[in-house]
Amino acid sequence: MTLGKTLWKIILIKLLIMFGVLKLFFFPDFLNTQFATDEQKAGYVMEQMTKTGESQP
Predict the structure, then answer these.
(1) What are all long-range contacts of 26-31, with beta carbons under 8 Å and residues at least 24 apart?
(2) Whole-angstrom Cα distance, residue 24 to residue 21?
(3) What is the pTM of this model?
(4) CA–CA distance, 57 with 53 (Å, rounded to integer)
(5) Quick one: which of 18, 43, 15 has its CA closest to 31?
(6) pLDDT of residue 21
């Protein structure tokens, strides 16, 4: 039973490291680097969420 607990601990540690590295290097904080205020951030997000497909006739 101790082998199973040890393996689960190793799996959890590996997952935390993997997701931490992925977040740092592959998912930068786009909104904080592009916009200064919360209103600008909210406006950009709202625009992206409500944008219709431009290629449709």
Answers:
(1) none
(2) 5
(3) 0.51
(4) 9
(5) 43
(6) 85
| Contacts of residue 44, Cβ cutoff 8 Å, sequence gap at least 6 | 31, 34, 35
The whole-angstrom separation of Cα 38 and Cα 23 is: 22
Task: Give, rounded to a whole angstrom, the gap between the first and last alpha carbons of the chain.
Answer: 62
CA distance 43 to 56: 24
Q: What is the pLDDT of residues 6-57, one digit of tens each?
A: 999 999 999 999 988 888 888 888 888 899 999 999 999 999 999 876 655 4
Gap between the Cα atoms of 25 and 37, Å rounded: 24
